[in-house]
Amino acid sequence: MRLVLLGPPGAGKGTQASNLAAHLGVPHISTGDMFREAAASGTELGALVSSYMESGGLVPDDVTISVVRRRLSLEDCGMGFILDGFPRTLPQARALDETLEEMDATLDAVVNISVPDEVLVRRSSGRRTCSRCGRTYHLEYDPPEREGLCDDCGGELVHRSDDREETVLQRLHVYGERTAPLVDYYRSRSLLRTVDGDSSIDEVFERIRSALEAAPE
Ligand code: ADP
Ligand code: AMP
Fold first, then answer.
1. Most CB within 10 Å of its CB: which of 67, 84, 116, 217?
2. What are phi and psi of 52, to 5 degrees?
3. Quick check: is 171 catalytic?
4. How many angstroms separate the CA atoms of 152 and 208, rounded?
């Protein structure tokens, strides 16, 4: 299964992609996670992307596209993948089409998780991310067993610097300008399934599973 999860920051893409990846047995590919790992390990890529991420802007398309092309060429993507946070612009979507064509593959579906803006801000302000493995929690809706520590690896949970309210508002603005047009792009290709993401994590997971069995919009 080859899926794209689309939706504004805080919609639950990472949470659902991780559950879907475990359920379907395919890799979860998050460009945000890849960039954060690069920034934390101080690589050349990390130095390049940090300022864009800090300001709530997008990393340039050429950089992002080459990172994803390389990732999709790895063997573990042979049975499929779940893309979370990519594509985020029309040039990225076109580059994904070209890459898939070269792989002689097609997307099965694009799941658009829809959540009202005020809920997105609450989700981002309570989001905590493991500084070691990247797993995401929420102080109120999905807390860890031990306060401040990751259930999986014991790493320290941190509040992402781009989850400060003013940066979240900037990211929402960027989403509206640059990423929202992808909804029409994928609708016109008969790939889109919109799911109401304003419900519990388990309920949204069930909605996505049903949407994947239903006809596209
Ligand atoms: P995205 O990857 O779209 O930015 P995340 O999956 O990281 O979003 O979710 C944002 C925050 O909201 C996280 O703290 C996560 O634990 C929490 N969250 C995700 N889905 C839900 C949900 N359905 N209900 C409540 N909180 C949620
Ligand atoms: P995310 O974890 O998906 O919220 O992404 C965090 C940040 O990484 C974004 O605000 C961008 O700065 C950057 N980023 C992630 N994915 C992309 C992408 N596909 N295109 C450009 N920038 C991205």
1. 84
2. -65, -45
3. yes
4. 25
Q: 208: closest CA among 99, 82, 105, 42?
A: 82
Q: Which residue has the CA at smallest separation from atom 23 of ligand 1?
A: 201
Provide, rounded to the nearest whole percent, the portion of the chain with pLDDT above 70: 100
Please name each of the domains of the chain with its CATH number: 2-213 (3.40.50.300)
Q: What is the pTM of this model?
A: 0.97
Q: CA dihedral defined by 140, 141, 143, 145, rounded to 10 degrees?
A: 120
Judge whether 161 and 54 are in contact, CB under 8 Å.
yes
Select from 142, 167, 198 the residue to mutate for testing ligand 1; criterion: most ligand atoms less than 8 Å from CB: 142
Each residue's pLDDT tens digit, 31-76:
999 999 999 999 999 999 999 999 999 999 999 999 999 999 999 9
Tell me the two tokens of residue 75: 């063997």
How many C-beta neighbours within 10 Å does residue 161 have?
Answer: 11
Q: Tell me the two tokens of residue 214.
A: 């239903």
DSSP string spanning 72-141? HTSGGGTT-EEEES---SHHHHHHHHHHHHHTT----EEEEEE--HHHHHHHHHHEEEETTT--EEETTT
